[in-house]
Amino acid sequence: MRSTAGETTAELVLALEVAEAAGDLLLDYATRDVRKRHKSGRELVSEADFAAQRLIVDAIREAFPSDGVIAEESIRVVGRPESGRRWFVDPLDGTTNFLKGQSRWGTSIAFYDGEAGAMGVVTCPPRGETYYASIGGGAYLGEETLTCSDVGHLADTVVASGFPYDFSKGSNLEEWTAITPQVLTVRCLGAAALDLCDVASGRSDAFWEQGLGLWDTAAGIVIAAESGALVTDMEGVVLAEPSCDVIVANPLLHRKVLTCLRSGSAEIPVVARS
């Protein structure tokens, strides 16, 4: 367990422990007939989501009662805004996969402390995988150091993305149409936090999506960035905070992917956030 300057922080220790506990709880729910409902449009939520969220948020509130918490299932704990200490929690990323008996789902927990840094933990309990990273401390899958791929040609690129549940806010179809003929394949696997970790591990070469929740991206973008990937918004601005719109790719590919998604316009420069 590593963080900035190679040290272990109390926040990272807590996130790893509570993510493991949430994973055990969710694996138990996966053996049951779980109650579910539509929470908005086509998006599903289940009793497992709420149970895992209660476990995680209660642990954070007990350990760090003044911190802010933003969790997917309608929890917004303000904490002390002046402190800048915020947690982002997705208790069950990939709920539809979970409910259909598929193995691509997990938990995402991130902590941001203003200018002091950030850390993220993403788990995939069915595969027994735990990804984690802190700014300046590297990215890891268990004890394995993660490095993003070095694929440089679009024709060799494996890309992941997804579609929003609410198409009234944008469909992502134009971007799929623009990039699909240019790359090796585009995959829609149904769990954005794990898609970001796939870029970090080199299982995928790039990922983009729009209209996500901040809890979807907060942990994964830290892990991807610490693996060496370039993490920006859809305008090419490097992200230092969670965003609902992201493009993540290795540095050789990022500008090519960004340009392709913008329908073949002139290459768009990547710029640091001011």
Automatic annotation (TrEMBL):
Cofactor(s) for this UniProt protein: Mg(2+)
Enzyme class: hydrolase
PROSITE patterns: IMP_1, IMP_2
Pfam families: Inositol_P
Entry EC number(s): 3.1.3.25
Any one Gene Ontology molecular-function term assigned to this protein's record: inositol monophosphate 1-phosphatase activity
Catalytic activity, reaction form: a myo-inositol phosphate + H2O = myo-inositol + phosphate
Gene Ontology BP terms: inositol metabolic process; phosphatidylinositol phosphate biosynthetic process; signal transduction
Keywords: Hydrolase, Magnesium, Metal-binding
InterPro entries to which the protein is assigned, alphabetical: IMPase, Inositol_monoP_metal-BS, Inositol_monophosphatase-like, Inositol_monophosphatase_CS
UniProt similarity note: Belongs to the inositol monophosphatase superfamily.
Protein name: inositol-phosphate phosphatase
Naturally occurring in which organism (per UniProt): hydrothermal vent metagenome
